[in-house]
Write a sequence for this structure.
């Protein structure tokens, strides 16, 4: 990395730390992370003692597994010319500057490099403290294995990303070769598990198996680890020699390779895509791949004013490949089928399911799925970013109703996908199926309305994460409020009465939430 | 001097720039004029080395992709993007280091003052408005003290006072024999600036006008004469 790029990196880091240090939430988060890390380390130490991995041999197994987990995925990403993030600011200031394009790749990949370095340091500490490996071996491990791995990773980054000579086809072949190598690892692993069963000793046998150590790059790195930590064998000395030769060869290639920055064009495109994804993520929207839209779709608007919002949304959904169905619908279908199977396997003849009245199964599943997807963004929130929503001459309540109407239809469809198959398995009557679907529509409406009300009333003083937490809190409060009368009526009258009261309470809360949330549609500033 | 020879840029089957040739000499302000999608930004990005292209581009005789060429040219993109966690001053410091520019602290301060950014020096990149980002972007380009400067729609997002200042700066650069290439679709903005004008449409240069030879005819008149559009008074 050049001095100027180092300046950007170091100043960015310092400024971020300074800014974070001013926020009390940073210290809370930090304390949480430290506590979590201590818990993990504590439980991990106990676990490795229980499995007899607190030795040099055990350390070798652990670092080998870590290598399998991290390195192949990274190298495959580089072969696909991915895995490095470029930002628009880098396109603006660094790509046009007189910087060596290879060093620009290093700058962009510095997070990966630092990540590997930190993991190496953690491994060293872990080896010394938990696995009682000698200091000399750990030092050699760090200086040779960790640094050599970083060198190879950097070489691969430059050789793959900055290559202007090798054709695209070469990288496609390389990607499949790497997948092939991983396939060999997988086949040998399955064979060994089949033959020797699941145990630590099988793992040790696997890692010292000649076929494994002969596989280029990853197998050779295993040889290197074993040579350093366990001592020489003909196989691991050969593997290590090949590993070192590979590192030297790749370094020479990466240094001498022609790279004048032709990759800037692709990187610029990635930077734009990344900025778009980041922007969506900030708003709580998830983008998976590129959406394909259908053209030549028309919509007859059957209403004016606020109704136009509903028809416009419907038109947008009609252009989607799967109309109003998405990943959400798929998950609900899978959950429905899972509960159908579970119902057949665990359902009692008295209509019970795992010891509870079957009428409460679906409400619990629905509430759980809703909490899981509490951050799931919907089209109606986008309406609040559009000035026209506020300019349409209609009442806030009507605007809100028509802006969320499609969401209620979607909730009804998802509810059907979950409830109908599940009801077959858990033997639920059609009336309860319908009520469970309606309950889901109400719960989803609650999520929308109370979430919006919370962010309108309190959201101005909270960031994006704060708003998400507020929404989950608001949703949980609604569920708790609904649960209390359900339990009371369920115990005092009957479980059916409890169910109906729950539905009535949630419906009432939905209406209240709708009135509260309509305030968001009154003025645009309510969302700023 | 900036020389573009036989520049062609294709995106899949679409030809964004089609065999374009032009030269802008030292001390000249060249204007790339044309409607949206004419290929102006693609040419500027190709010169800045951000795109793969066919043809030859030289900056003072140096291949525009070479490090030596990049040392002497500055680029102001259409949409500025700041480093989120770098202050305005730190952006300029990066430029000074990356280009080994001789600009002094006092000159940087004067530059910031000129574009009314002196009190924004300690603001982080993600705290700036679009207009301010554009001003920082222009200041960074000027801090390079370049021999050639490329500006892609530089007036977009600027307030009237900054536009006025930018025009003054460009005329000063011209006096210092700097080569300037500016792309725009806003005829009004470049009326008093241009020396040579390249009218573009659908990836091709459809007309070239030299101010000295057009006897100071109005830029709008010349433009609409070529494009066939109506002139708005």
């Amino acid at each position: 990395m050049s001095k100027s790029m180092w300046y950007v990196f170091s100043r960015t880091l310092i400024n971020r730390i300074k800014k974070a240090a001013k926020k009390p939430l940073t210290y809370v988060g930090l304390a949480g992370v430290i506590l979590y890390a201590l818990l993990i380390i504590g439980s991990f130490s106990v676990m490795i003692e229980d499995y007899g991995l607190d030795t040099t041999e055990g350390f070798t197994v652990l670092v080998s597994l870590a290598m399998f987990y991290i390195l192949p995925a990274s190298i495959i990403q580089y072969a696909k010319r991915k895995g490095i993030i470029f930002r628009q600011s880098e396109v603006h200031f660094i790509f046009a500057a007189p910087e060596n394009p290879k060093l620009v790749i290093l700058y962009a990949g510095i997070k990966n490099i630092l990540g590997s370095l930190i993991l190496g340091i953690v491994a060293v500490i872990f080896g010394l403290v938990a696995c009682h490996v000698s200091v000399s071996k750990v030092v050699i491990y760090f200086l040779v294995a960790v640094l050599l791995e970083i060198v190879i990773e950097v070489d691969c980054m430059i050789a793959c990303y900055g290559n202007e000579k090798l054709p695209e086809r070469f990288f496609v072949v390389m990607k499949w070769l790497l997948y092939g190598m991983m396939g060999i690892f997988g086949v040998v692993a399955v064979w060994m598990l089949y033959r020797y069963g699941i145990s630590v000793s099988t793992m040790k046998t696997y890692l010292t198996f000649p076929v494994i150590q002969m596989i280029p790059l990853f197998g050779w790195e295993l040889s290197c680890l074993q040579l350093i930590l366990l001592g020489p064998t003909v196989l691991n000395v050969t593997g290590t020699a090949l590993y070192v030769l590979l590192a030297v060869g790749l370094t020479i290639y990466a240094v001498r390779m022609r790279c004048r920055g032709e990759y800037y064009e692709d990187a610029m495109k990635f930077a734009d895509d990344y900025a778009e994804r980041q922007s969506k993520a900030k708003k709580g929207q998830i983008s998976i791949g590129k959406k394909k839209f259908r053209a030549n779709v028309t919509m007859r608007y059957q209403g004016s004013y606020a109704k136009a919002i509903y028809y416009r949304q419907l038109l947008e959904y009609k252009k989607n490949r799967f109309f109003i169905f998405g990943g959400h619908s798929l998950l609900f279908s899978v959950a429905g089928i899972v509960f159908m199977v579970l119902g057949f396997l665990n359902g009692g003849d008295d209509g019970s399911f795992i010891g509870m009245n079957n009428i409460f199964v679906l409400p619990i599943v629905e509430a759980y799925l809703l909490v899981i997807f509490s951050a799931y963004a919907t089209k109606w929130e986008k309406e609040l970013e559009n000035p026209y929503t506020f300019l349409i001459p209609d009442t806030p309540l009507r605007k809100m109703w028509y802006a969320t109407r499609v969401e209620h239809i979607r909730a009804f469809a998802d509810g059907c996908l979950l409830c109908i198959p599940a009801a077959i398995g858990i033997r639920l009557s059609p009336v309860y199926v319908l009520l469970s679907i309606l309950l889901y529509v109400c719960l989803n409406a609650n999520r929308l309305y109370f979430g919006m009300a919370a962010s309108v009333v309190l959201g101005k003083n909270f960031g994006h994460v704060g708003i998400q937490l507020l929404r989950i809190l608001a949703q949980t409060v609604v569920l708790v409020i609904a649960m209390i009368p359900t339990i009371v009526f369920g115990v005092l009258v009957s479980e059916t009465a409890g169910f109906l009261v729950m539905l009535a309470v949630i419906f009432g809360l939905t209406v209240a939430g709708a009135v509260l949330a309509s305030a968001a549609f009154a003025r645009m500033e309510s969302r700023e | 001097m900036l020389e573009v020879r036989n520049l062609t840029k294709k995106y899949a089957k679409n030809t964004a720039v089609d065999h374009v040739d032009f030269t802008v000499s030292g001390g000249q302000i060249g204007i790339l004029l044309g409607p949206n999608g004419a290929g102006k930004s693609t040419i500027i990005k190709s010169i800045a080395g951000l795109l793969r292209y066919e043809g030859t581009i030289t900056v003072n005789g140096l291949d525009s992709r070479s490090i030596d060429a990049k040392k002497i040219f500055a680029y102001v993109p259409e949409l500025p993007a700041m480093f989120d966690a770098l202050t305005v001053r730190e952006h300029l410091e990066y430029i000074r280091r990356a280009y080994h520019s001789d600009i002094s602290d006092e000159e940087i301060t004067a530059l910031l003052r000129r574009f009314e950014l002196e009190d924004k020096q300690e603001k982080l990149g993600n705290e700036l408005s679009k207009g301010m980002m554009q001003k920082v972007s222009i200041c960074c380009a000027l801090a390079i003290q370049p021999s050639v400067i490329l500006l892609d729609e530089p007036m977009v997002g600027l307030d009237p006072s900054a536009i006025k200042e930018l025009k003054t700066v460009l005329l000063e650069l011209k006096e210092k024999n700097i080569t300037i290439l500016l792309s725009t679709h806003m005829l009004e903005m470049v009326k008093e600036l241009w020396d040579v004008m390249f009218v573009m449409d659908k990836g091709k240069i459809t007309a070239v006008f030299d101010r000295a030879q057009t006897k100071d005819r109005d830029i709008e008149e010349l433009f609409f004469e070529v494009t066939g559009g109506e002139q708005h008074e």
Q: What stands out?
A: Chain B touches chain A through 35 residues (CB under 8 Å). The mean pLDDT of chain B is 90. Residues 160-175 of chain B form the longest helix (16 residues). The two ends of chain B are 35 Å apart (CA to CA).
